[in-house]
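Input record (one chain):
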Amino acid sequence: MKKISVFALAAVLALPAFAEESVETPVAEEVAPVAQTPVVEEVAPVVEETTRSENGFPRGLQFGVGVSATSGVNGFVGYANKNFDSFWAKRFGVRFDFGTTAPVKSKLNDLINDIAGDEVEIGDNLTVSDFELDAKHYAAMLDFYPFGNTWFLGAWRLTGGYYFGEMNATAKIAGTIDELDAGYHEFELMDTQFRYLGNTVNGTAEFDWDYRGPYLGTGFDFGLFAGFKIYLDAGVVFTNKSAQLNLDVPFEGLEINQGDGWKNVVNDSLQSVVDGVIEETLADAQSELDDLKFYPMVKLGFMYRF
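The corresponding structure, as predicted from the sequence alone:
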């Protein structure tokens, strides 16, 4: 029987403990903490209520239709927005204005003649009849509202601009002068003698005014409901040209005396002489009209502003 040495036995007995100590415990790797991305709530951008409702198209667009005492049917298109934040922007507006008697010319003339009656007496049994009026204008205007949109004061405006227009009026003059008999009746124009046979008078009067120039006036646009308003304009156009007056004297029954006896005005030569005399006579009357260079403008109607 083999002997086991003490040292060998001790080694065998120590082996399990040695094995236990030699087994390494696995070390867990250090894992860096995963940073979490903060969740950002989506916030809708705070946008001020755009000024579209107050200043965007068509806010401020305006148009109107009415009547003009001197131009017939009146209308305009323009822009004026009193909701602007700017002190000055809310106080200014622009308009393009127009007027014409064309759409209502026949009815307007009928109305004038109905109001005047068949004939209007102007003295000495002379009457004026068959009135005809034809007028139109175009204008660009700048409105200024001194009080902006301050309560009812905001409706008042001052207006400046430039006008192009014309007005033509004609009427027939006729009558019988009872104080005169049916014989010859003499009259003198510019030192020239004329006479008519009989006491009947006939002729045509014409009034023409072709004007253009700066305009200055005032007015208001008073609100009714929603965007509907009443508008009024009153002012004058400082014209570059005065009204022209013309009088047509018929040659029938007219005689002229140039120092060599009475002659019937039946040929072109004598008619030219008569026309020349009439022109000189009208020149005197025209000199007074030349001092009148203010064309009145009055308009009233309804308008709508967005």
